[in-house]
Each structure stands twice: as structure tokens, then as C-alpha cells.
TrEMBL record:
This is Xylan 1,4-beta-xylosidase. GO terms for biological process: carbohydrate metabolic process. Gene3D superfamilies: Glycosidases, Glycosyl hydrolase domain, family 39. Belongs to the glycosyl hydrolase 39 family. Keywords: Glycosidase, Hydrolase. The active site is at 190 (proton donor). One of its GO terms (molecular function) is xylan 1,4-beta-xylosidase activity. It holds the Pfam family Glyco_hydro_39.
Length: 519
């Protein structure tokens, strides 16, 4: 396919800016570029992992990104059934009797959940939440989420400690310490918001963390535990100081941020922060806090991030996410060990059962296995190498491949077409194209160049959904059509002319170029 033919008709109707000229040498000095943005993904709560569609979506995202672990809420929710002190059981030939103290925990669904992840080639990133009703200081302290997790502190920390110990012992007995020591155990979720009802919030969270970390480490010191798992990049400095001052075990720091988070809460400024700068600025803030802490080498995990924490169809369903993701990765590189995109698929029920495939869900894959532009953005960026070459342009990410070639991401970032929970149809003219003239040096002889795109007309099912009238419940035939419309576009083969290629990228489009001998 010729490059020009890949552009949308709408984008050809507008003038193009002067070309961006860049020269990249495959033999130039480079710095390590681990794929920190695709190691972990978030997901709907724990019990949803037993669904077939959830596991099919895992396979699709794993094939595209090779991701290593999944983080979800609610492994201690009552629907999982772990804490079960009142249960009766019957042994064959014996009368019904009360379960002994060691048998008050039922690991049946826990095992099915974690077995399922491992069978699909990903590990748990274990978020230790929420409170079993039978352990809660307030059994009726429910969060507003549709599935109503209990967010109360425990009534008795001795019983919480016992559950943590039993949980750790069981995981080690089932999977072995060599496996379990590769997992991360994160204490709770966003205790600075309404997911934790201890009062005062910070002091009572410290108490929860201290008990949890000590109980897990008492079972085996190789268990990796961390926190504070806060929203809005909060509390990390205070958390690390608390652990240091009180000799509390900690193996990593974790927090969250979203592109539309509040600038005052995250960065303590009245200045308006654009969506493409919020996550990088928050990461830089926490990175500096760690460097100034008693643990300057502490690993930093942003265990939730996305362009939006709300259901914004023109953000998380849109091809806008491609350049947003690329520019975010480019800016935070070197400051964070891992980031967990929230989340990998729209098998998700925080606001209730999904009513329609495209509502601004957080996932890479919409309901009924329809791939979104975000899916293709991650798949394309997975092709980048693991050594980064410095380039003096904020719309280019240049890397070396293991074969001695080059892999480049090029993008044309603009804010979303529409914002908020109502979908805004794409106008006839969406913005100016950006042209890149890329010189590639130092490539092996006979190198070829392939190009992948995600934009308004590549890897985007929304135009087909619009043409159907945006049905709330598409028919089986319409779903098949949407899956086809949302599939990745095939790569384009380009030829180097005097060592150069010219690429035009539509507004809010992302391109990945790979040049090398073995494509």
C-alpha cells in the first residue's frame, strides 16, 4: 500500500505543516529502554477473571504485548469466598461439624483465579483488597461501585494478620516460593480516596500496611510487598519516611495518576495541565520524592495510569490514545520501573454490567472482543527496541532493535476531538497532517522498512459503529463487522531512497517504522 493511500480523505483536505527532518543512526550511542509501559495491565475485579471472554482477551493482549502480570481489585471480596468462618462441611460417613480454626479460609476461587492467569501466561500483581464483611469494623461500609466492596478497616487486626499469613502460606504451598517471590503484593487500593474508610485516612492506612507487610514477611521474607497504592500520585514521600522511621518492610512504592486528574491535587498548582503532560509531570514528581527519600533506589510502580479516569468515548475508545500513549512513554522513560495501564479489556463492572461496546471503557478491547485503537497502539509500540537513541524532537521515539536495525514511533498529537461522557462525532476536517522525513543510517545491507498505523481509518471500528447508528446491543452479524473494522491494518512496505523515507501522519495518528534485515 502506498503511504499516501493510507491517509484518510479528511486529512488530505487540509494543509500539511513543513516536514520534520530527522536523522537516526543505528550505530549511535543508546541508553537502555525497557518496555516499562507494557509489563502489567489492570483489569476488572478478581471474580471476572473466571469468565471465558476475560481469558480470551488476556490471550489477545498477551500475544500483542507479551505482558507479564495483571492487577485487579477484590481478591478478598466476599464473592471470592476466601474468608468463610461460619461455613459447615460434611466428611463422608461423619456428622456435619464446624470447620476447625485452620479451615476458616476457602481458597477454591482464589486458586481458580490465579491458576487461570498462570495458564494464560501472566502472573498476578496482587492487590490486597477489599475487606471481607466478616472481618470489617463496619460490615455495612460499602463503596459506591456496582459490586459494592467493603472499604472498612478490620475490626480485629489479629484476625486480619491471620488471614494474611494463611493467604501467603497457601500461595507458597500451591505455587512455590520461587514463583510467588516474582509477584508483587500491594496493600489496598487508593486509601486516600473513598476506597478506605479508616479515620484519619493516612494514619489508619499506615496501621493496615504495617500489619500486612509484617504478616507476609513473617511467612517468607522473599515475598515482595509495597504501597501506598494512592490516587493522584499522593503520599509516597510520607509513606517511605514512615516505613523507614518504624522499620517496616517495603520493596516498592506504588501510586496512580490519570491524564485528566486534578492539577491541584496531583501537582499542587493552579496552572492548567494539559492531558499529555499530567502523567509525565506526576511521574517526575514522585521520582524526585523517591530520590530524596531514605530509599533513593526504591522501585517505582505506577500501578494505574490512563489518559482518563472517567468514561470519555473520545479519549479511551478513540485513536487519540495512540499518540497520547507514545508521548507519555517518551517523557517518563527512565523514571519508573513499571506502569500498569488501566485496563486491558472492558470485561468490567464498576459502573454496572456493560450496556454497549463503546461507552468510553478503559480497556484495549471492547465488549465482545472488538479491538480498539488502544490495542493496536500497544501492539505497535511493542515493536520498539530495548535501546533508545536520543532524538531532538518531541514527536519521535527512536530505538535500536536486537537485529541491528531501527524501530521508530512517530506521532501527531492533538487534544481529543470531544471530551466528557458524551460521544462527539468526528468532524470532516480533524487537523493538519504532520510529515516526517526520516534519514536512517547504519542499517545492515539489504534492510527493509515496514510501517504500521493507527488513526481514524486504520485499526478503528468507530466509523463502522457510527454507520450502524451506534446500536446499544449490536447483532451477532454487526459484532462480526465491528471486529473486522477494528482489526489491525496490514503493514506497509516502504523503500529507502538515498537512505530516507517520507511519512505523513494524520492528526491524532501514530506510526511505527521498523527497518532491518529480518522483518
Amino acid at each position: 500500500m502506498a503511504v499516501a493511500s493510507a491517509l484518510s480523505i479528511a486529512s488530505l483536505m487540509v494543509a500539511q505543516n513543513p516536514a520534520v527532518e530527522v536523522s537516526v543512526d543505528a550505530k549511535a550511542p543508546a541508553t537502555p529502554f525497557p518496555h516499562f509501559w507494557e509489563q502489567t495491565f489492570g483489569s476488572g475485579r478478581a471474580i471476572l477473571s473466571l469468565r471465558d471472554e476475560y481469558r480470551q482477551d488476556i490471550d489477545a493482549v498477551h500475544e500483542a504485548t507479551g505482558f507479564q502480570s495483571i492487577r485487579f481489585h477484590g481478591i478478598f471480596n466476599d464473592e471470592v469466598g476466601l474468608y468463610d468462618p461460619a461455613r459447615k462441611y460434611t466428611n463422608p460417613g461423619q456428622a456435619t461439624q464446624a470447620v476447625a480454626t485452620d479451615g476458616i479460609y476457602n481458597f477454591s476461587y482464589v486458586d481458580q483465579i490465579y491458576d487461570g492467569l498462570l495458564e494464560h501466561h501472566v502472573r498476578p500483581f496482587v492487590e490486597l483488597s477489599f475487606m471481607p464483611k466478616g472481618l470489617a469494623a463496619d460490615p455495612n461500609d460499602f463503596h459506591i461501585f456496582w459490586y459494592h466492596p467493603n472499604v472498612s478497616p478490620p475490626a480485629d487486626y489479629a484476625k486480619w494478620d491471620d488471614m494474611m499469613s494463611a493467604f501467603a502460606r497457601h500461595l507458597i504451598a500451591r505455587y512455590g516460593i520461587e514463583e510467588v517471590s516474582t509477584w508483587s503484593f500491594e496493600v489496598w487500593n487508593e486509601p486516600n480516596l473513598d476506597f478506605w474508610d479508616g479515620k484519619p485516612k493516612q494514619a489508619t492506612y499506615w496501621e493496615l500496611y504495617d500489619h500486612t507487610a509484617k504478616a507476609l514477611k513473617a511467612v517468607n521474607a522473599r515475598i515482595r510487598v509495597g504501597g501506598p497504592s494512592t490516587a493522584q500520585a499522593a503520599w509516597v514521600s510520607e509513606f517511605l519516611q514512615h516505613c523507614h522511621d518504624n522499620n517496616i518492610p517495603v520493596d516498592f512504592a506504588s501510586t496512580h495518576v490519570y491524564g485528566n486528574d486534578d492539577n491541584v491535587n496531583v501537582l499542587h498548582t493552579d496552572a492548567k495541565i494539559p492531558r499529555d503532560k499530567m502523567v509525565p509531570l506526576a511521574v517526575a514528581k514522585v521520582h524526585k520524592e523517591i530520590l530524596a527519600s531514605p530509599y533513593p533506589q526504591m522501585p517505582l510502580y505506577f500501578s494505574e495510569y490512563n489518559a482518563s479516569y472517567a468514561n470519555e468515548p473520545n479519549v479511551t475508545d478513540s485513536y487519540f490514545i495512540g499518540p497520547w500513549l507514545a508521548t507519555t512513554i517518551s517523557q517518563v522513560d527512565g523514571q519508573v520501573q513499571a506502569m500498569s495501564y488501566w485496563d486491558f479489556a472492558d470485561v468490567f463492572e464498576e459502573q454496572g454490567v456493560t450496556r454497549t461496546p463503546f461507552y468510553g471503557g478503559f480497556g484495549l478491547i471492547a465488549e465482545d472482543r472488538i479491538q480498539k485503537p488502544a490495542f493496536h497502539a500497544f501492539a505497535m509500540l511493542h515493536k520498539l527496541g530495548d535501546q533508545r537513541i536520543a532524538v531532538a524532537n518531541d514527536s519521535i521515539l527512536a530505538t535500536k532493535t536486537k537485529e541491528g536495525g531501527l524501530a521508530l514511533a512517530l506521532w501527531n498529537y492533538l487534544p481529543p476531538i470531544g471530551e466528557g461522557d458524551k460521544y462527539t462525532p468526528e468532524p470532516s476536517v480533524v487537523g493538519e497532517n504532520k510529515t516526517f522525513e526520516v534519514e536512517m543510517k547504519g542499517l545492515p545491507s539489504g534492510s527493509k522498512v515496514e510501517l504500521w498505523r493507527v488513526d481514524g481509518t486504520h485499526g478503528n471500528a468507530i466509523p463502522a459503529f457510527d454507520a450502524m447508528g451506534r446500536p446499544q446491543t449490536p447483532t451477532r452479524e454487526q459484532l462480526a463487522e465491528l471486529r473486522k473494522a477494528g482489526a489491525a491494518s496490514p503493514p506497509e512496505s516502504l523503500k529507502l531512497k538515498n537512505g530516507k523515507v517520507t511519512v505523513s501522519v494524520p492528526a491524532r495518528g501514530l506510526v511505527v517504522l521498523v527497518a532491518g534485515p529480518a522483518l
